[in-house]
Amino acid sequence: MRCRIVLILVPVLACFAVTVLAQDPDDLYLPEVADGTYPGGSMRTAFIILNPTTTPDQLTLELTAQDGSPMVVTIPGLGTGSEFDIVAQPGRTTFLQTDGSGSLEVGAARITRSSDVAQVSAIFTVYDA
Description:
This protein is an alpha+beta fold. It has a single domain, classed as Hypothetical Protein Tm1070, Chain: A (Sandwich). The protein contains one helix and nine strands; from the N terminus they run αβββββββββ. It has one helix at about 1-20, and strands at about 25-40, 40-50, 55-65, 75, 80, 85-90, 90-95, 105-115, 120-129. The strands form two sheets. Strands 1, 2, 3, 6, 7, 8 and 9 form a seven-stranded antiparallel β-sheet that branches. The chain has a two-stranded antiparallel sheet with strand order 4-5. A hairpin with a 2-residue loop joins β1 (about 25-40) and β2 (about 40-50). The N and C termini lie far apart (about 60 Å). Mean pLDDT is about 85; it is low at about 1-20.
C-alpha cells in the first residue's frame, strides 16, 4: 500500500514543482474577472493598483476568457482590448473599472510587473436594470 501512495505522490509533486517554478514571481493572478450585461443587470470588475513605493512600476493587465481566448473589455481611459499597459505611479492608488458593455463574460487576469512593488486587487460590482 505504501508503494502505491509514494508512486502516485511523486509524479503529482513533480508536476506541482514544475508549475510553481515556471511562474514568474513578479506576475500576479486574479482568478475571477467578470464584465458585461445579462437579463436584469450587468457586472463590472474594478482593478485597484497600489504602489506604496517611490519607484514607478510598469504593469501589463492581460485578460483571458474561460476558454483561454482573449477576453475583450472596455476600460474607460485605456480603450478596448484584452491587454492593457499601465504605469503604477509611485505613492498612488489607481482605480480602473470595466464598463460592463457587451454580453456577460467571465475569465481571469494576469498582471505582469516590471518589479514586485505594485499590488493589484479586483472587486466585482453587480448592477441591476
